[in-house]
Amino acid sequence: MACQQFDLVADFLDIPDNLRDRLKLPRRALTVSIPVRMDDGSTQVFTGYRVQHHLTLGPTKGGIRFHPDVTLGEVAALSMWMSWKCALTGLPYGGAKGGVCCDPGKLSVGELERLTRRYTQELIPFIGPQLDVPAPDMGTNEQVMAWIMDTYSLQVGHCVPGIVTGKPVGLGGSLGRRESTGRGVAYLVSRAMDTLGIPADGATAVIQGYGNVGSVAAISLAKQGVKITAVSDAFGGIHNPQGLDLMALNEYVAKNKTVVGFPEATSVSNAELLLLPCDILIPAALERQITGENAARIQCRILAEGANGPTTPEADVILSQRPDIFIIPDILCNSGGVIVSYFEWVQDLQSFFWGEGEVLDKLFRILEQAFGQTFQLHKKRGVSMRFAALSLGIKRVWEAKQTRGLYP
């Protein structure tokens, strides 16, 4: 998917063929074996990855995910998207991504810590505050980032809070970082509603993936008057056309670890949820959810991609023929997380920290600029919002590589 998107944009930008591989192929791709002593005394070997796409604009930046389906190809694609995302929003980073093929839900806290620390040990020659700065992703959280920071700091002999972002505030994390992706999604949805003339009060939203991103986006939109009618997680979904009580839902999820079975709502599958009529559809779960099979049947006005790569190229072809749907592409829509990660990195390097209001103000300013530039190119050149966002990001990396030149 990532390569198909790049090739289309490269044709549009008229990038010479002899420069395309340099822009597309990752700078480094690392595969490591991670032996872990399990609680029962046995040893299990996990496979981990880290891909650094380019270092032209600064250190690489990207999350680490713990998931059973992690592959090198997935991690490489996500690192490429992160490159275009950082360039689109004007951050001095290249893209990176990492992951370990495991099911964190089946590991004890001790096993998860030993896995994290051993994985970090394998990465130490390739990461650093000026080289590659990891962050949380699917299956990882603030605690995992704290273990990575501690392992790296012990190795170099002093505390290095800038080695990761998304860590606890008490260890140098930034206020507002945990909620930043979801708040960014909600802000951009609000801008899209303004652009399309859709009043927030009474609008409806459906969210696939009620995790950190989806739940925060839901709460932020509900505060604006948007009615959340359906949400889902890995186990299934719930639907109430009259609107879900988010306060009660959050209490239910905290107790039961799933949205499934929530009272005063009917059950719905993840596939069915995507086809529900609504004003705003937010896929905030896994990749490849909107495909050539269901794209023609989606019933929304705004498609806000909270997840990475939720829409396939085949679906994009269908959606391009549906002017009734306004797409906020993933590299723009979910960029709030990396933007505030950048703020956290800057604060750590300075050892000077900001209040949450200052963080949010700076976040919304960057999102506003990126949205405005993307929408302007979308209207001026008559291309899709995704094509416009990718074009801006790829062009900035291409120009930077041209300016720096190629070392002999």
UniProtKB/TrEMBL annotation:
Keyword Ribosomal protein among record annotations: no
Binding site for substrate: K61, K85, S341
Site (Important for catalysis): D137
Gene Ontology MF terms in the entry: glutamate dehydrogenase (NAD+) activity; nucleotide binding
Gene3D superfamilies: Leucine Dehydrogenase, chain A, domain 1 (3.40.50.10860), NAD(P)-binding Rossmann-like Domain (3.40.50.720)
UniProt-listed Pfam families: ELFV_dehydrog, ELFV_dehydrog_N
Domain Glutamate/phenylalanine/leucine/valine/L-tryptophan dehydrogenase C-terminal: 174-405
BP term (GO), one: L-glutamate catabolic process
PROSITE patterns: GLFV_DEHYDROGENASE (PS00074)
Active site (UniProt): K97 (proton donor)
Keyword vocabulary terms for this entry: NAD, Nucleotide-binding, Oxidoreductase
SMART domains: ELFV_dehydrog
Positions with a binding annotation for NAD(+): T181, N212
Cited PANTHER family: GLUTAMATE DEHYDROGENASE, GLUTAMATE DEHYDROGENASE 1, MITOCHONDRIAL
Family: Belongs to the Glu/Leu/Phe/Val dehydrogenases family.
Protein name (record): Glutamate dehydrogenase
Species in which this protein is naturally found: Prosthecobacter debontii
